[in-house]
Amino acid sequence: MASSSGSATASPLQKTALNPTHRQCGAKMVDFGGWDMPVEYSGLIAEHMAVRTRVGLFDVSHMGEIQFRGPEALDAVQFVSMNDASKLSEGQAQYSALLTPEGTFVDDILVHKLSPNDYLLVVNAGTRLKDYAWIKQHVQRFHCHASDFSDYYSQLAIQGPQALATLQKLTRIDLTAIKNYWFVWGQVCGIHNVLVSRTGYTGEDGFEIYIPSDPTTTVRAWQEILDAGREFEIIPCGLGARNTLRLEASMPLYGHEITEETNVFEAGLNRFCKLDKPEFLGQAALKHVQENGGPQRKLVGMEMTERGIGRDGYPICTLAGEQIGAITSGSPAPYLKKNIALGYVPVAHSAVETELAVKIRGQDVRARVVPQPFYRRQKKQT
After folding, report:
1. Do domains 19-63+151-248 and 296-370 have the same CATH topology?
2. What residues contact 55, with CB distance under 8 A and at least 6 apart?
3. What are the domain boundaries of the chain?
4. Could you give phi then psi for residue 136, rounded to 5 degrees?
5. What is the average pLDDT value for the chain, to the nearest integer?
6. Which end of the chain is more exposed for a tag (fewer CB within 10 A), N or C?
7. Distances, alpha carbon 9 to alpha carbons 125, 128, 240, 284, in Å
8. Can you say how many angstroms the Cα of residue 78 is from the centroid of all Cα atoms in its chain?
9. In this structure, are residues 219 and 21 in contact, taking their beta carbons and an 8 Å threshold?
10. With contact defined as beta carbons under 8 Å apart, do 100 and 106 qualify?
């Protein structure tokens, strides 16, 4: 999950506590959802490959954190999100989404259960204000208080096969005991009460640490992680590599694969949407779709079979030249060494091995539908 780039206003760009550090490191900075963020340091391909084969460090402090507290916190979370938070144990997280009444996406989120009356929602940077306003609008009926604590946290993501070995040097927490989509509290880099989660947005194993957002603490943690990972050739990574990594892993990006015009079934995320739980926003609309033949289009993964790169927005056509859809995300896949893309096509054209074409600068370039995800890491017992 991550917000799409670009800011809707001319407001000054927001900056994380690490902004001066990124600039000192020579990072290329861009406007990402209204934030001044590093898109790359040493190069997108080098950073992508570091995460796939070793370890990389990301500043994702631009993400938002919204906390639900109160006797009806669970009821409120259940109403505004599509997954079933009642199934969470303390210390567990789940992928979910905020939906419109039409069953389309306000944003995709991570829900963390801190305690029976306390939940933390991690939301995308570019949609943070919209999400918080949406939440405030819809939780008024519950005995629950929703607070935006985004400015209190810096979030650092350590991702890759050597992420555990790197972070373990900096904490007494037994990181091997944290299962995927679980989290604990503890001391990291000498900082107390750090939330350490094991989720990620790269397709690799990894951890996120949530620390106080003051610059001194954040810069110290950043440097200590880089020092700890030196033996594994850790490098700082920008949002460019984060995007190609998540694309190889077929993870959706808000503003691209999921939007307020895209419903859950079209996006293929119905496994995270629990229609049988108590009432939630979008439930009735999605049941209607389900009861009336399902979605008319489907998100598919495509691999270019002829020379050419399918970019975001390029038309998807039949081999006869009829436009049937458009690419939502497309780029070269550095690790797979292929050109890949995600896009929506009618269900009749969505089967694996279906031959399609992508219109690139007026020319039809062949592609075929392939299974998702494009990349799946080899999991080991840790």
Report:
1. no
2. 158, 159, 160, 161, 162, 163, 165, 166, 229, 232, 233, 234
3. 19-63+151-248, 296-370
4. -60, -35
5. 96
6. C
7. 14, 15, 22, 34
8. 21
9. yes
10. yes
Nearest-Å Rg of the Cα atoms of the chain is 21
At residue 376, what is the residue type? R
- Phi-psi region at 242: left, alpha or beta (left = phi > 0; alpha = psi -120 to 50): alpha
Q: Token pair 């801190």 is at which residue?
A: 114
337-356 confidence digits (pLDDT tens): 999 999 999 999 999 999 99
Q: Taking the domain 296-370, which CATH number applies?
A: 2.40.30.110
**Long-range pairs for 282-288 at CB < 8 Å and ≥24 separation?**
282/82, 282/99, 282/100, 282/101, 282/102, 282/103, 282/104, 283/103, 284/101, 285/101, 285/102, 285/103, 286/99, 286/103
Tokens at 244, concatenated: 């190609």
Kindly state which CATH superfamily the domain 19-63+151-248 is placed in: Probable tRNA modification gtpase trme; domain 1 (3.30.1360.120)
- Residues 160-200: tens digit of each pLDDT: 999 999 999 999 999 999 999 999 999 999 999 999 999 99
Q: Is the distance from CB of 96 to CB of 81 less than 8 angstroms? A: yes
